[in-house]
């Protein structure tokens, strides 16, 4: 095939993907290759740092919860900008459902001051 790299027209033989062997080697080294290019080194490093921060935040939050009169206060987060988070704790027991949503209203519920006249609306 024809070379598409900087060595075009120099007589270098085609190696792969329009590149000579020298340029293809540089491409693989810089980009992580055709398979690893989806997750370059900078992305992998940032992802590891993000996961480490999330894990540290979760561990810090679990160890710093203090119950105060029914209120759980979380403080001391790594990036606490003065915003403490409050969570109200309460009874977690079962609540009874009130049935009655399927009842049809009686006709008397609709009768107002005008009575039962269907001609009270004007066109």
From TrEMBL:
What segment(s) does the record annotate as region Disordered?
A: 73-123
Q: Where is the composition biased (Acidic residues)?
A: 114-123
- Basic and acidic residues bias (residue ranges): 92-109
What protein is this chain from? Uncharacterized protein
- Source organism per entry reads Opuntia streptacantha (Prickly pear cactus)
């Amino acid at each position: 095939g024809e070379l598409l790299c900087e060595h075009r027209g120099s007589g270098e033989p085609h190696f792969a993907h329009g590149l000579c062997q020298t340029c293809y080697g540089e491409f693989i080294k810089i980009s992580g290759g055709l398979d690893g290019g989806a997750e370059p080194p900078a992305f992998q490093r940032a992802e590891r740092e993000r996961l480490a921060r999330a894990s540290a935040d979760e561990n810090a939050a679990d160890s710093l919860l203090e119950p105060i009169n029914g209120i759980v206060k979380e403080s001391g987060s790594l990036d606490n900008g003065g915003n403490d988070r409050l969570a109200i704790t309460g009874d977690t027991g079962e609540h009874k459902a009130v049935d009655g949503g399927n009842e049809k209203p009686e006709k008397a519920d609709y009768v107002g001051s005008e009575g039962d006249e269907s001609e009270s609306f004007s066109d």
